[in-house]
Amino acid sequence: MLEKRYQDWMDEFMDSWKELNWERTLNTLDKNVKYYENPLDSPCKDFIEVTNLWNVVADNQKDIDYQYKILSYTDELCIINWQMTRTLMPSNIRQQIDGIFQISVNEEGKCTYFKQWRYTR
Q: Could you tell me the pTM of the whole model?
């Protein structure tokens, strides 16, 4: 049941990203999420900063395909390996990403902690 909660969250997060529906993507996140865009930086200071990261997605990428695998999870934490291909706009360069998400999801299915590591080529 717990794995299903993480899987449901990941499906909604990645499907909304694929559809370039950044508002729907933001809806997967708790308004007080501790959100790390980069693991070496401090987390976003507030939800406005998170919104600013996502509201450009529809303008700078397209043709998104993804897959993922849940590697490990507990009540408090889930580790997910994800891969994505996308086309960057306006250059039309095809990009491959292999990454890790470290997330926590509350009982309402909203992400309260989000940290990612990714390699892009």
A: 0.93
